[in-house]
Amino acid sequence: MDTILRIDMGAEGGPKANATAMGGYAGYGGRALTSAIVSKEVPPLCHPLGAENKLVIAPGLLSGTTGAMSGRISVGCKSPLTGGIKEANAGGQPSQVLARLGYRAIVIEGKPQGDDLYKVFINKDGVKITADNSLKMLPNYDLVEKMKAEYGDKIACISIGPAGEMKMSAASVACTDMELRPTRHAGRGGVGAVMGSKKVKVIVVDDSGMPMRTPKDPEKFREANKRFVDGLKSHAVTGQGLPAYGTNILTNILNEVGGYPTYNFKQGRFDDAAKISGETQAELEVKRGGLATHGCHRGCVIRCSGVYHDKDGHYLTKQPEYETVWAHGGNCGICDLDAIAKMDFLDDNYGLDTIEMGATIGVAMEAGLAKFGDAEAAINLLHEVGKGTCIGRILGNGAAFTGKAYGVERVPVVKGQAMPAYDPRAVQGMGVTYATSPMGADHTAGYAVAQNVLKVGGDVNALKPEGQVDLSRTLQIATAAIDSTGMCLFIAFAVLDQPDTFQALLDMLNSFYGLNLTGDGVTELGKTVLTMERDFNARAGFTAAQDRLPRFFRTEPISPHNVTFQVKDEDLDKVFNW
Ligand code: SF4
Questions:
Q1: Which of 448, 538, 489, 483 is nearest to 296 (CA)?
Q2: Beta bridge partners of 126
Q3: 275-305 pLDDT, tens per residue?
Q4: Which of 182, 290, 490, 527 would be 309's cystine partner, CB 3.0–4.6 Å?
């Protein structure tokens, strides 16, 4: 029977684990489950790093099955970065492993007395929580090697690096990939700082001896999964573009449409974009013996990931994502793929969100801490963060904190969270999502680039305000539902474009759980999740004033289209009217 594993780090006599029934949370997975638990059990006015906050780690509804693409894991809490509810999700192996162990979620509660740091080991025989101070301040790669030496290589790890231990608001939670490398991160919102505040360094999961989760109707599930995979393979984005070039295929596309924020959101095109494009990156990876096509977990058929080798042909990092290449690249005026890959590695190793750190370094460059284009200086700033120096602790707390510390006016954040790689003036639908998502500025919360730029699932003019509110609403609802299934969000391209592929996804859910879910049911699930999240934020003190972009996006036109963000405030307030 599926259960929720509750780990009380503040229990008398030391941390204790207890498996509890799903109760009122039955039927929820992924983001729906993390947001339901946080919304119901965490006092909205609590300190995010205090004992009252909870860190919820939940596989999706179809994780642990033979269903393709079903390996996302959601991490939720009250965010130390935004002060609101947070769900950040990641790929990698832990979601499948945790689900096969029969856990629908791990809830880490309370806070231990003293300075001990803990590791948690979970397998078919139960849960073991041990103090292990030899792990203190270990970067993620060394930590995973140590866990491998101790528990073997059939494990998966969920961990924090030094940034999480130092409780920095840009700290991520790392998940290991198929090669047991800590490369997939629940990056956003400082979820790693909350794990650090609970003094949990690593959760090691081992599903040896556990079977795949079994559908109620295995034959129908198998048939639906086949149709789903066929649909993904036949779509141009999920079947060709993403596998060939990874997400970084977007560099040339966004640059071409003038939506590529450059020099801390000063212009919409980067002269050197071609040097750091997905096409250039893939060519280099293959030439050096890395991989341009790779899955981040078993069962991924899109395989947008890759492996990046250095000049000598040695592993340097996984293929940096588009948003990472932008954050450490064009946003900082840097056009050196090796330097960007090095920063991607440092972020993963220290346990930091690449988007937040790239945006933060952009703000630091605007403040004069380094020159735009100076890759060496940017790398040094990241080392300051990893070492926890005074300047490093400022930077490690994100773009908003850094902007305040150095008196910078142009700080691209919403609800304290840095904007990703799409300028909201040139891609106005993204501006609506950034402004209104309960998560703060987050491209994955409602990816309007699909219709504004890629023309997948519709066509809404990116430069005009008309239609953007309706578009963002629809996408935010759909995304909240997809994030609950455990499916990688990239399925959305095929699901939005091809009714048969959407139906196949519904058939997978229905045959697995014995349900009769329709498209309307999926919409209702998405609305329910967003309503819970908005309700938490309202109780935490958020009002419509937080659903806004920074002022300079309305006053500073961006080249090449010479356009400002034009969606009216009163229209932003209608996004959640349904
Ligand atoms: S498509 Fe990319 S991000 Fe999604 S599961 Fe596959 S490799 Fe991971």
A1: 489
A2: 123
A3: 999 999 999 999 999 999 999 999 999 999 9
A4: 290
Over its C-alpha atoms, the chain yields an Rg (Å, rounded) of 22
Closest atom of ligand 1 to CA, residue 71: 5
Residue 547, classed as helix, strand or coil, is: coil
Name the residue of 176, 184, 297, 491 whose CB sits within 8 Å of the most ligand 1 atoms, as the mutation to test its pocket.
297
Band of pLDDT at residue 266, cut at 50, 70 and 90:
very high
Cα angle 313, 319, 323 (rounded to 5 degrees) comes to 145
Instruction: Find all residues with CB under 8 Å of 206, minimum gap 6, and list them.
Output: 97, 121, 122, 123, 124, 151, 152, 154, 155, 156
Is a pLDDT exceeding 80 seen at residue 1? no
For 343-356, how does the pLDDT look when each residue is reduced to its tens digit (9 = 90+)?
999 999 999 999 99
pLDDT band for 496, please (50, 70, 90 cuts): confident
The pocket around ligand 1, CB under 6 angstroms, is made up of: 69, 91, 295-297, 300, 302-305, 488, 490
Assign 558 to helix, strand or coil: strand
The residue contributing the CA closest to ligand 1 atom 4 is 488
pTM above threshold 0.85 = yes
Measured in angstroms, how far is the CA atom of residue 169 from the centroid of ligand 1?
Answer: 26
62, 32 Cβ separation under 8 angstroms? no
CA angle 373, 375, 380 (to 5 degrees): 130
Residue whose Cα lies nearest atom 2 of ligand 1: it is 304
Q: Report how far ligand 1's centroid is from the alpha carbon of 374 (Å).
A: 31
Question: CA geometry: angle at 65 spanning 60 and 67, to 5°?
Answer: 90
Q: ∠ at Cα 327 (323, 328), nearest 5°?
A: 125
